[in-house]
Amino acid sequence: MFAVPPNTLPASSGLAVAHPVRIARELAADRTSWAPLLRYDPDQRWAGLLHRADGWEAWLLSWLPGQRTDLHDHGSATGAFTVISGTLTETVVRSAGEALHVLRPGQSRVFGPDHVHRVRNDGPDPAVSLHVYRPERPRTTRYGHDLVTGHLRQD
């Protein structure tokens, strides 16, 4: 048995201090909050701001088959994304090589500073995902592969 000091308070259950993946999953589960906002764009993936709070924001994204991001990072932000429907493929690029993650509804990925990745919809059906960034959605850096050395380069 152990003693709990009298000044100990339980951790807040609010989203202000919650992990980004918890926020993404809770918002994704609340279909009534995002379904009326959802759009599909035949020319590029669609993104709409779903929620902005002190220190974080959430974005709803739709992906038609074949739509993708470029190779990018999210600067100093941490975050997560959860697939709501469809299938998304994330390619993470590290110094040791590439890692491929296929994500289905209900699955999430977490990222931190310097996480370089690309996300795409390789499936036959549209996909929807919810992305949370802490702090707010930062400026991204785009990358490419140096064809001679095979190393990443900033574009």
TrEMBL record:
Q: Does the keyword Disulfide bond apply?
A: no
Q: Which InterPro entries match?
A: CDO_1, RmlC-like_jellyroll, RmlC_Cupin_sf
Pfam families, alphabetized: CDO_I
Instruction: Keywords in alphabetical order, please.
Output: Dioxygenase, Iron, Metal-binding, Oxidoreductase
One GO molecular function term of this record is: dioxygenase activity
Tell me where on the tree of life, at the top rank, the source sits.
Bacteria
State the similarity comment: Belongs to the cysteine dioxygenase family.
For this entry, the protein name equals Cysteine dioxygenase family protein
